[in-house]
Amino acid sequence: MNTNMLTKEEKEKILKAIEEDREFRYALMGLFGYKEVLDRIVSLEERFTKLEERFVKLEERFAELAERITKLEERIAGLEERIVKLEEVFAKLEERFIELAERVAKLEERVFKLEERTLRVEEELRETRRVVLVIAHRFGVLSEEAFRSAMKYVIEEIFGIAKVTKWVFNDKEGFVYGHSSLVEIYVLIRDKEHILIEVKSRVSKGDVAELNRIGKLYERVEGVKPRLVIIGGFIDEDVYDLAKSLGVEVKSIIKT
Prior knowledge:
single chain, alpha/beta, Trna Endonuclease, Chain: A, domain 1, rod-shaped
């Protein structure tokens, strides 16, 4: 009989001890070379526990990040809505601006047309006033002096802005009219040029000859040869040839 063999009862006691006695069980495991394995398992369990803790923290941080992302998404959505509304507002403003620009363009066009009409009316009124003045003078309603004064604006219109004065000379020898008389004529001096201007409601050959003689008298007295201009409302047909030969310019008050 082999004395090294365990009896059934001994085996059952050992198995029961291994199952119920933890220290005994670990001692046997160490005896059989399992201690190092157990240490490594314990170390792994500790590391796993730490990893779990870190994972929990990571989950918490992830949850925070997810919450922040959600809030950012909500803010972005709000901003997108505001941008859409602003784009709609700008679109409406742009439409209104275009409409206003079109209305302004139309108004400017109307104003331009009104200005043109106003200028035409003013020109027509000036022409009408000239005709009325000429007719009034011809029929004795307007005196010679009043007619001449009224025609000053015509002189300024023809010759531009310039100072028009009256030259008065006592012609004792009767050079102009053949007897002693007071000679009066409008004179305009511009850029050293002397212009003698006569204004008549109706211009005849005699008026042209008279202005020619006044011009010669002026040259004798003032020592300057003047330019001679006669302005009239109605001008006889035979005036132009004589005026050209005597160096007298003839201008009509009434535009044709």
